[in-house]
Sequence to fold (256 residues):
Amino acid sequence: MIQVEGISKVFKKAETNKQKVYRTAPKTTFTAVDNVSFTCQPGRIYTLLGPNGAGKTTALRIVASMLQPTTGTVKICGVDVTKDARAARAKLGFLTGSTGLYNRLTPWETLKYFAALHQVEDSVSQERMEQLIDRLAIGEFADRRVGKLSMGQKQRVSIARTLMHDPEVIIFDEPTNGLDVLTSRTIIEWIRECKQAGKTVIFSTHIMGEVSLLSDDLGVIHNGKLCYDDSFENFKSQFGQHSLEDAFISILEDAS
Fold:
């Protein structure tokens, strides 16, 4: 379970040496996430929907303990990420559409490294690596250096890396961004399988088709604020006469 309570993130703007004359003092801070709260339940997919720059990635990086919130708390399976980030990270996997991999390692070596990083026992890690490599069709390039792989192949390795320690909570931050249709479909299927396995899944996107394919619960974020938070069934009931795109735009307009 993920419990997010009133998180905000305020960034300080970089100073410049240029001399300008302002009628009013310029703002020196930027609020990327503004008092956001939501809950993600096990065995359900919570979709965080919003336009580019809405605050989705910042919010998810706070949830994943990659950023400290300015205010608010996040608990992963009951563990407060600001008080015990190491314990929280042991329970979660984090995947983005631009996850970095070390180019000089092969997929096999990458998975072995992350198994060791998460202290997965050798007897367990070997079996899990074989399962992930088979399920994600990595076998044909498992011994090739990552730097020689296509974007789609790298993303398959990233998925396997994310799941090596069998986390209870998985965060997918726009994981299909820039990928071809076949690789995107593989990721969508894998997200569904995580749900069926009873894991807590949070999935961010700005692609409407993915929302209808995956969502159990839906949050809409705009200008750093959560302006909708309910089940996807209730969303469809509330906006049933509109297309998903029209309903989304309506929510954004009401929030502006």
In short: The chain has a mean pLDDT of 89. The first strand starts at residue 2 and ends at 12. Residues 1-9+30-91+168-178+200-256 form a domain with the Rossmann fold fold (CATH 3.40.50.300).
